Amino acid sequence: MAIVITVAQQKGGTGKTTLAANLAAALAPSRKVVLLDIDPQRSLTRWHQLRPDKAAPLTFSNVSGWRLTAELDRLKRAHDVVLIDSPPQIDTDARLAIRAADLVLIPVQPSPPDIWAAEGTLNLAAAEKRRSAVVLNRLPASGKLRETMVASLRESRHPLLTATIGNRTGFASAFAAGLGVTEATPRSIAANELRAMLAELLELME
Ligand SMILES: Nc1ncnc2c1ncn2[C@@H]1O[C@H](COP(=O)(O)OP(=O)(O)O)[C@@H](O)[C@H]1O
Ligand SMILES: [Mg+2]
Questions:
Q1: For residue range 104-134, what is the model confidence (pLDDT) as tens digits?
Q2: Cβ(11) – ligand 1 distance below 6 Å
Q3: Percent of the chain with pLDDT over 90
Q4: Mutate which of 47, 86, 137, 171 to test ligand 1's pocket (most atoms within 8 Å of Cβ)?
Q5: How would you class 37 by CB atoms within 10 Å of its CB: exposed for 0-12, middle for 13-18, buried for 19 or more?
Q6: Cα(77) to centroid(ligand 1), Å
Q7: Which pLDDT band, with edges at 50, 70 and 90, does 182 fall under?
Q8: Contact criterion met (CB below 8 Å) for 107 and 14
Q9: Residue 156 pLDDT > 90
Q10: What is the tally of structural domains in the chain?
Q11: 119-146 as b/e, with b when 16 or more CB fall inside 10 Å?
């Protein structure tokens, strides 16, 4: 049976789709991975359509609605990892995706509205008795904002990953080519950060 990671956060633009695509691309060479896009915006579907034939293969699905539960069961049986990209609001599908998750990954940009929005997702994961982890995305390398945000998250005792992701243009360029940063620019800082985050996630799930 697969492990299921649902990337969720009630706010748009925090990096859900970017992280789901990049985690899948980084896992693809070593695991049977499937990406499930349940966001009606379908950005991940577009990314997958751009994916070059020679890139490491990964399964893709964007089944949603009443067929979602059966689709999830089917995908779990046939893969090692299921990565779900969810919409920026908690609708029925997003609730199902959180319920199905072994881990709910919540990207947060270092700004108060992102942190407030994360609370809702954290509460929902807790209500469903799901494990969750907050990851700081687009985090400045240094400065007051970084210190304040990291401190306030630690204080709130939210489950915070040690790994963080900086603000890196490489994510958008890789995305435009249907790739992850570990494929497009494997020696970049973005790729190093992504691999560190993946390693931490896999360790958490063991
Ligand atoms: N770490 C990052 N560095 C730079 N740009 C990022 C990063 N993460 C996300 N972005 C950009 O932010 C925008 C929103 O990201 P996206 O993954 O679509 O968010 P969501 O799916 O949560 O709405 C995109 O343009 C994406 O390229
Ligand atoms: Mg998205």
A1: 999 999 988 898 899 999 999 999 999 999 9
A2: no
A3: 84
A4: 171
A5: buried
A6: 30
A7: very high
A8: yes
A9: no
A10: 1
A11: ebbbebbeeeebebbbbbbbbeeeeeee
Atom of ligand 1 nearest to the CA of 167: 3
How far is the first Cα of the chain from the last one, in angstroms, to the nearest whole number?
Answer: 14
Which single residue is written with the structure tokens 């990337």? 7
Domain containing residue 67: CATH number:
3.40.50.300
For ligand 1, atom 25, the nearest C-alpha belongs to 172
Residues 98, 4: Cα–Cα separation, whole Å:
9
Q: Is any atom of ligand 1 closer than 6 Å to the C-beta of 171? A: yes
CB-proximal residues (5 Å) to ion ligand 2: 16-17, 43
Q: Which residues constitute the domain of residue 34?
A: 3-205
Regarding the beta carbon of 13 and ligand 1, being less than 6 Å apart is answered: yes
